[in-house]
Design goal:
single chain; 442 residues; alpha+beta; Creatine Amidinohydrolase, Chain A, domain 1; Creatine Amidinohydrolase; 2 domains; six-stranded mixed β-sheet; three-stranded antiparallel β-sheet; 13 helices; globular; binds glycine; binds manganese (II) ion
Length: 442
């Protein structure tokens, strides 16, 4: 079945279980960059997940009662003049046929139709607080229905946050999504291989960024899923380094955290390699600790484990490695409990990945925890996708041996939880130190 239609049906069922009502899901607004130039348009992830429709100025409305449901798309009309300037628009009639809605109407009819659709319905389901213009529009429609009270019309008495329903759906990827995420991962892997091959002292970080983006675009991706991080030497210790303007220097490491977005789905890969193709002894020592930590995290990624387990597995290896290098003191339990390792490893080992690079979905199990206890971490289930991204970041300091100064290392792959363990989607780019050296020298 059409994946978007299938998702609307599943959402319909969730709304019905909550007593029915009307769901209103708008796509993202266009945003001006400066004067007449817009930022590249990126539709809203929730809206796209349920429609597959990529034009701006569009709203999906699902009307659900005990037995039936109707889907309505509001979208831009066809407009010869605007299509000459800006490009093709489906218009309601074609959009309805192609995307399989029960009805489609002009977006210009939204304010007229919504009070009618909301009349005598028990609840409205929408994203509340995501966009103040959307919030104001919902308030206007509700007030317009309330204004008909003396005519015997009742307004929805309940407002539900729809994102929490869709988040739980998006957390488990369907086969359509997994197929796209595999392809996105392949393109990003090829981009990292290209960047490794192109690295040499004297080049600039932005030149390697251009190599990555060349591969993304040639693979059919429209854009990176997030700002590419190309960080050489000490810049690798800046976790969200953005400048990408330093010159690559002999003897330094280069950390690249970059992934393309393909058909709305993110990939997220980090590799760290020596600018000139050979690790120094100290670099290699720390690198192998991070790699072992990642292997431990991946081994802890399987159904039944909790979201935090891969992180805890990675922290154990990292902390032991730091003790072995003399960067923190043992014993291991104390180093972990005291958080001493956090000076060199200050982030989590993973996050959900999907349409958004830091994808939606609660990291804790739904429902109320037992009184006095924390909500337990989410149990991993087949179809979830998480990143595995341990790192070590050693800034120069008086109490740190010089050979460890300014070494920042992260290794990041994307893992799909399967029935028996996990599948690494991003495995086509080498990460064992020997394999990286071999690739760079070939
Ligand atoms: N590139 C963002 C992250 O790794 O979380
Ligand atoms: Mn990540
Ligand atoms: Mn990343």
């Amino acid at each position: 079945m059409h994946p978007y239609h299938d998702r609307r049906q599943r959402l319909t069922q969730l709304i019905r279980e909550r007593g029915g009502g009307v769901a209103v899901i708008a796509t993202a607004p266009e945003v001006i960059r400066n004067r007449d130039a817009h930022y590249p348009y990126r539709w809203d992830s929730y809206f796209y997940y349920l429609t597959g429709f990529t034009e701006p100025e569009a709203v999906l409305v699902l009307s659900v009662d005990g037995s039936g449901a109707e889907s309505r798309l509001f979208c831009r009309d066809k407009n010869e003049e605007r299509e000459i300037w800006d490009g093709y628009r489906f218009g309601p009639q074609l959009a309805r046929e192609k995307f399989g809605f029960d009805h489609a109407l002009s977006i210009d009819k939204l304010d007229e139709e919504l009070p009618r659709l909301l009349a005598d319905r028990p609840a409205i389901f929408s994203a509340i607080g995501a966009d103040s213009a959307h919030d104001a529009r919902i308030a206007r429609w509700l007030n317009s229905v309330r204004g008909q009270a003396r005519a015997g019309v009742s307004a929805p008495a309940q407002v539900f946050e729809i994102r929490s329903l869709v988040d739980d759906m998006r957390l488990i990827k369907d086969s359509h999504e997994i197929d796209i995420m595999r392809r996105a991962a392949d393109i990003s892997a090829a981009a990292h291989v290209r960047a490794m091959r192109a690295s040499r002292p004297g080049r600039f970080e932005f030149e390697l960024e251009a190599e990555l983006e060349h591969e993304f675009r040639m693979g059919g991706s429209k854009a990176p899923a997030y700002g590419s991080i190309v960080a050489s030497g000490r810049h690798a210790c800046v976790l969200h380094y953005r400048a990408n303007d330093a010159r690559l220097t002999e003897g330094e490491l280069l950390l690249i955290d970059a992934g393309c977005e393909l058909d709305g789905y993110a990939s997220d890969i980090t590799r760290t390699f020596p600018v000139s193709g050979r690790f120094s002894g100290a670099q290699r020592t720390l690198y192998d600790i991070v790699l072992e930590a990642q292997q431990a995290a991946i081994a802890a990624t399987r159904p039944g484990m909790r979201f935090i387990d891969p992180h805890n597995a990675a922290v154990k290896v990292l902390a032991q490695g730091l003790i072995d290098c003399g960067l923190i003191s043992g014993p291991l339990d104390t180093a972990i409990e005291s958080g001493a390792y956090r000076r060199f490893y200050m982030h989590r080992t993973g996050h959900w990945l999907g349409m958004d690079v830091h994808d939606c979905g609660d990291y804790r199990e739904p429902g109320e925890p037992a009184t006095g206890s924390e909500k337990p971490w989410r149990i991993l289930r087949p179809g979830m996708v998480i990143t595995e991204e341990p790192g070590l970041y050693v800034r120069a300091a008086d109490d740190i041996p010089r050979h460890f100064h300014d070494i920042g290392i992260r290794i990041e792959d994307d893992a799909l939880v399967t029935e028996s363990g996990c599948e690494i989607l991003t495995g086509k780019v080498p990460k064992a130190a020997n394999d990286i050296e071999a690739l760079m020298q070939s």
